[in-house]
Amino acid sequence: MTGDDAIHAIALLAVDPVGLGGVALRAAPGPLRDRWLALLRDAMPTGTAWRRLPPDTPDSRVLGGLDLGATLAAGRPLAERGILAEADGGVVVVPMAERLAGTMAARLAAVLDAREVVVERDGLTRRWPARISIVALDEGIDAEEVPPAPLLDRLAFAIGLDDLPRGALMASPSPEAIAAARLALPQVTVQPELLQALCATGLALGIASPRATLLALRAMCAAAAFAGRVTALEEDAVLAARLVLAPRATRVPDDAAPEPEPAEGQAPESQPEAGPAREEDLADMMIDAVRAAMAPTLLARLAAAQQAATRTGAVGRAGAARRDGKRGRALGARAGRLHGGARLALIETLRAAAPWQAMRRRQNPRSDRPVLIRAEDIRLRRYEERSGTTAIFAVDASGSTALHRMAEAKGAVEMLLAECYARRDRVALIAFRRDAAAVLLPPTQALGRARRCLAALPGGGATPLAAALEAARALADIERRQGRLPLLILMTDGRANVARDGQTGRAAGEADALAMARLLRATALPILLVDTAPRPQPFARLLADAMGGRYVPLPQADAAALSAVVGAAARAA
User: Fold this and answer.
1) What pLDDT is attached to residue 303?
2) What gap in Å lies between CA 497 and CA 512, rounded to an integer?
3) Are residues 439 and 500 in the same domain?
């Protein structure tokens, strides 16, 4: 993205703010971002509404609804407009858009599609026009932190300012030219070959959403109107492709293949008609412009997208989202009963009770309470909190090589515990030997306590593998009931020789271990089996398959390698 493209985006957005939807502006807070926003605000007509919408704004303020004070004073339901309706015809700035909740992004997307706000709440149904343009401020540090896809799909432009020099935004669009372009925009016409070329460019870039082409068409018309033309030209189409299609590319467009020469003695094929040839030339021109615009950042962005697609969960990082908890990020309110430590949403409760005050006064004329509230009016606060991850180590402490395995387990557990201060992970340790399994270290984040328990870890004896799996399953169930996500890391050489009832023998031990493994598979628990035998054991692989887990032969594991494998398994869980 160049400084000229950033200025062009301001001009086009000022010409057609509603049709283009808005812009995703990726930039750190600072003078450059403030300058871009100031230029956009100056380009808009005088008196254009300008509102800010923080991510944690409640729905009642975003969409509108019951005016609590006016309703209580008048004794009848009175509605008030929200931020989106107040910004009708203007701009809504969304700071920290990369943290925007999916529900709020869906509401914004619905308003961008319908261009109105529809509220059905507290016995009221209200409609307000909301023809808005959104500026989503993307302040994420990581390339994977982006605003929700439903919102990005409806914003024409995606601009990055971090790589621009400080003086890149000195020029500004002419307000007079923008005013004239707004008047001329409805008369702009587009030649069919330009539209065909836009569609071909989108296909070459791997863009699946049809909104991208429609937004590029709107941008092309706005560019022509801003240039004072009533017919879009090739340069307008190239600018639209560079600004709208290039940021959405999912693959590098292939170079055009050379046409084969006719064989000797073969008549050359007839030349294609001028119309199709012109469309192909236009498409090639747009693709070349897009390739030049996206070349510096495409590979990095595609690599980040590929990494994000390979992750199937949040285990090992921030955990999974759990709603209706008692703490975390507020999600609004819901109807319910006050019990079990639930927190009352006072304002929402008053909103639910306000429309019925006049009727309740007639039913209870002797009541001296200022507000009559009933059980059905109660609203409770809803929260979303991230559940932590518990890594359960089940370590085989049997045999003559137990001391070596204990040393590696101690090192891996201590390395994971050191990372728990930056996350909400906990670590537990189960040791199994002789005829039983014992929880030596309950789930904890205390590094000192873990080291003291690990220092006295015993070793020697037979291998009660079935008992270890049973103990791990019970501990995982406890962690799940407490809202955490358990991850089982089983470290064993696979030589099970003790059954659950204490009977010794390889056949009985392996049969019980397989039976417990199938029970673990039914719990859908993420499992990693680390084979610590000098040579990979067939039964260990069979056990991992029965549990539905990942098998990793690691005969010469050290603490760093084991910690790396466990971390990778946690991210893929």
Assistant:
1) 43
2) 10
3) yes
